[in-house]
Every structure is written in C-alpha cells, then in structure tokens.
Amino acid sequence: MNTNLSSPIPSPRAISGESWAxxxxxIGSALLLVKKVLSPKPASKPEPVSRADxxxxxxxxxxxxxxxxxxxxEKLDANQRELLAALxxxxxxxxxxxxxxxxxxxxxxxxxxxxxxxxx
Length: 120
Description:
The protein has two helices and no strands. By secondary structure, it is mainly alpha-helical.
C-alpha cells in the first residue's frame, strides 16, 4: 500500500466520441422501447352504423324492455291477487275465531244472581 499522498492519481481512460454516441443510442433505444411497451393501446375505431340500423336496434331494444315490463306487471298483479285472497281467508278465519271466543266468553261469564232467586 502506497502511503505517499503526493503520488499521481491515475487519470480515467478517455471515452471517445464514437463511444458516447453508442451509449446515447443505446439509452435512446431503451427509452423508446419502454415507451412503446407502456403506452396505452389506441382503441380501434368501431365500425360506423347506419342510421336505419341504429333505429332498428333501438326499436327492438324498446320492444324487449316493454315486453319485460309487461311480464313483470302481470306477475305483480298475480301476486297481489294471491295476497288479497290469502288476506281474505285469514280475515274469515279470524272472524270465526272471534265469534267462537265470544260464545265461550258468554257461557263462562258469571252473572250476578237476581235477588229473587237467591239460594237462602
């Protein structure tokens, strides 16, 4: 190990202009490659649709929606009729139970005995 502080430091090897050009070209190529890989792909343009085709598809879609809407309305009406019928059956059952309970209540109610019929 050389401890002499005044010893000459070896100078770095000089890079020629051609080497700098090759380095810059390699870096530029790498950047262009990265840009190409990472850039978003342009969306392919959709095929243009004629106005008549557009309106025909729009009408078909509207008819499908209307048909679906009518089917849902019919199902809702059927469900409502079924629920109203079930509610009517329950109301009839409840009324029958109430009248039966009222008859039982009348039979089991203790009436005060009239004074003329006292068991003295």
